[in-house]
Amino acid sequence: MKICILTSGHDVFDNRIYFKEILSLKKIYSEIYMVAPGEKDFITEQGIIVKCFKKRKAWYDRFRPMKEMFDLAFNINADVYHAHEPDSFQVALKLKKRLNSKAIFDSHEYHPEAFAEHFPVGKTFVTKTIYLYEKIMCKKADYIISVNDILVDKFKRYNKNVALIPNYPNMESVSKEYSEKPTFIYVGGIREDRGILKILEAIELVDKDYKFVFVGAFETEEVKVKIESYLKKNLNDKDIVFTGKVPHLKVFSYLKKSDVGFVILQPNNWRYINSEPIKLFEYMISTTAIIASDFPMMRKIVEDAQCGVLVNPIDEKSIADAIISLGEKREKTKEMAFKGNEVVVKKYSWSIVEKTLLDAYSELEKNI
């Protein structure tokens, strides 16, 4: 069976798409292609054939990339097209009609809400319109994959073939090499709605010699300027490092030296309140304790594992108190980290949900 992965906005080596789903499928299926944004075609070390089209210039640049994606995917003539966004799924459905192939929609975001955020006026109307369009498309899917119960329950109203495949981490072996002083880390895109400024405001309140490492790219130049200005004005005396974007596997070289990881998502984004961030699990798998926003889904994980501290994400003092407490009681913090690691291995690792993905493909293969 020939498989083609479609993505309009993700990187070729996206953690979920490539290192989890594609490499799991590669264990069974030898012929796997990927159509994704990029500069030139290439073949990965694992033998995945990647066909590239030019990245879109802005969020509204949709039609040109979709046309280029369709042309590349059509020439591949795959048995299954596995799409990761609504627009790439439109392409998958068009290919299904032309080639009599199978179409999978892999929805790991709250897409209607996310798209509507681009419209300051008429957001509710846009959201409802996208929901309706999504419903029409999903009825035509041969299979739908999603990451949490909220999304799975939604899609089950439209389609009987829905699989829950959470974004659990791969089992990365991390041998801790703690720094001399307590080290706190943030991993991910550097943007305000993920609590970057709140973390910096909290650090300003911490009168301790701790180290703070931020691993990830600035979302925009505006955010970069704002943060650099804040650092220069308020945090000159603090041990703070911004690494910029680093390859996924290199992230663990920073995690192994860290005591605590931040997941301070902000409540002004509904999607964040109702999410299980992959960073939460990556901290746990790397034996790193957690300071997390006190949101229902994250609360359930953190409290169940006893692997960190929950805070009010808009209250810098709440975050500062957690930093000081975990830094002062370092041995107890390490105990939290080890508990998190034990729980993630038993309940939240990719190896647990990999079979669900392979079973879905096995069902499709029977009808090809």
From TrEMBL:
Q: Which GO terms describe its biological process?
A: lipopolysaccharide biosynthetic process
What this protein is called in its record is: Uncharacterized protein
One Pfam match, given by its short name, reads Glycos_transf_1
Stretches assigned to the Glycosyl transferase family domain: 173-337
Report the InterPro entries cross-referenced here.
Glyco_trans_1 (IPR001296), Glyco_trans_4-like_N (IPR028098)
Which GO molecular function annotation, any one, does this entry have?
glycosyltransferase activity
Where do the Glycosyltransferase subfamily 4-like N-terminal domain residues begin and end? 33-167
Domain of life (superkingdom):
Bacteria
Which keywords appear in this protein's UniProt record, sorted alphabetically?
Transferase
